[in-house]
Write a structure and sequence with these properties.
Strand order of the largest sheet: 1-2-3-4-5-6-7-11
Shape: globular
Number of helices: 11
Structural class: alpha/beta
CATH class of the largest domain: Alpha Beta
Strand content: 15-25%
Distance between the termini: 45 Å
Number of domains: 3
Largest sheet: 8 strands, parallel, barrel
Number of strands: 23
CATH topology of the largest domain: TIM Barrel
């Protein structure tokens, strides 16, 4: 067993997601401000003030924030980029994540004391590239998603002072990360500038053309085969913590998904926190982690290429659907004060809702006029006897979109989620 504690790094697309990821077990989070961050949509969600608040929130808890400046800038943006780097440096994050040699050097020149992490967009796969970037000032390499564990071990053996970070969960790119031009060709949205339209997730009709005769045939597929021909499954390596951490090559395991939901931020952080802690306590239990992860919407899961070589894998694509529901549906989320919840699906009095809270949380067992809480099979549940809104109104049922906070029978940890099993007719792959 490797006794060096690995870091758990979670996505932070908003200030709320940042706080949730940290509360649910992440050691560090990554996110950014503006279009120089590789997720434009999530970059717009963060103001400099929010990002600064997030850094303080993390540092107050002994945790870290890495700022993403990993887009590929045009010449016309270089002066703006310099101002952005200096402004981000003033916020005192724990590292910058950058993707190109030029930006790496620029960050080092402008904020010389800032640790620099090289983005997965650089597609580092071998010792030579890792060494070059390390000599240029990179303190950590976020390796390509396509790298193998064996190659990671060789890089660590050659460069023991260089930190290595690997993705263990989330969406997979159809191409080497960010190197796909399909989105650019079809919609003008450039993947390695943060605005990929995810064209690989679309269904496509297939045709055969004969240029000599001008004949065009449409190829019909059997029902159920599907035409999502470029749709990669989602990465899920929670069941491989033994091999990954035994390698001694990995300093940080990373979860993808800055634009995904608050429930995703919480659930992935919790699942991988359990897996890491269980590894060091020598009590790994894959079923525990997969129970949480299977509750998320996904494109089907794969363990991809870290453990197995690409040519050994023939199940990394979801050909007949783009997204499927998980085993559970989020029915509500508790407010920051822990006193009320907002409905996210549909809630009736008497519904049994499983409680999803940070590890180590204490859930008080109560039975009063508002509702009951109880433990069953090692999990906590809540049932509401009445749906009493903050304004005093009693509802017969509440649905998503109802903005009235509903009173809880006891105080719960901030941002606790309630979930229910997905109905059989819900849990089908959308066509």
């Amino acid at each position: 067993m490797n006794n060096k504690k690995v870091e758990l790094l979670s996505p932070a697309g908003t200030l709320e997601k940042l706080k949730i990821a940290l509360d649910f077990g992440a050691d560090a989070v990554y996110g950014g401000v503006s279009h120089f961050s590789l997720r434009i949509r999530s970059g717009k969600e963060f103001s400099f003030e929010d990002f600064e608040e997030g850094i303080k929130y993390a540092h107050d808890r002994g945790k870290k924030v890495y700022a993403t400046i990993n887009g590929f800038p045009f010449n016309s943006q270089l002066n703006l980029l310099k101002k952005h780097i200096l402004k981000m440096g003033e916020l005192k994050p724990d590292a910058f994540i950058v993707a190109t040699p030029g930006v790496l050097k620029l960050c080092h020149d402008l904020v010389p004391d800032m640790p620099l992490h090289l983005s997965t967009q650089a597609n580092v796969m071998n010792v030579l590239d890792a060494q070059i970037y390390h000599e240029m000032g990179a303190t950590r390499i976020i390796t390509a998603r396509e790298i193998s564990l064996r190659d990671l071990k060789e890089i660590k053996a050659a460069l023991p002072d260089l930190e290595l970070e690997v993705f263990v969960h989330g969406s997979m790119c159809f191409a080497y990360s960010g190197r796909c031009l399909i989105s650019t060709l079809q919609s003008g949205r450039v993947p390695n500038r943060g605005s990929c339209a995810n064209d690989c997730r679309f269904p496509y009709e297939m045709y055969a053309a004969n240029p000599e005769t001008g004949t065009l045939f449409k190829l019909e597929e059997d029902a159920g085969v599907g035409t999502y021909i470029m749709n990669s499954k989602d990465l899920n390596l929670a069941s491989h913590m033994q091999e990954i951490l035994d390698s001694g090559a990995v300093d940080s395991i990373k979860i993808e998904g800055r634009t995904k939901t608050t429930y995703y931020a919480a659930t992935t952080a919790k699942a991988y926190r359990m897996a890491i802690d269980d590894y060091y306590e020598d009590k790994l239990d894959s079923e525990r982690y997969q129970y949480e992860l299977q509750s998320l919407q996904n494109r089907g899961y794969t363990d991809a290429y870290l453990i197995s070589r690409p040519f050994e894998k023939h199940d990394t694509q979801s050909l007949d659907f783009t997204m499927q529901l998980g085993t559970h549906q989020v029915s509500g989320v508790v407010n920051a004060e822990g006193t009320h919840f907002l409905c996210k699906y549909k809630t009736l009095p008497g519904d049994e809702m499983e409680v999803v809270s940070p590890l180590g949380s204490e859930i008080e067992i109560v039975d009063n006029e508002i509702g009951t809480t109880y433990e069953k099979d090692g999990k906590f549940f809540v049932k509401l006897k009445q749906l009493k809104a903050q304004n005093g109104k009693i509802w017969e049922e509440v649905h998503s979109g109802n903005i009235n906070p509903i009173e809880l029978p006891t105080k719960f940890p901030s941002y606790t989620f309630f979930r229910i099993p997905a109905n059989a007719d819900m849990n089908t792959a959308p066509k």
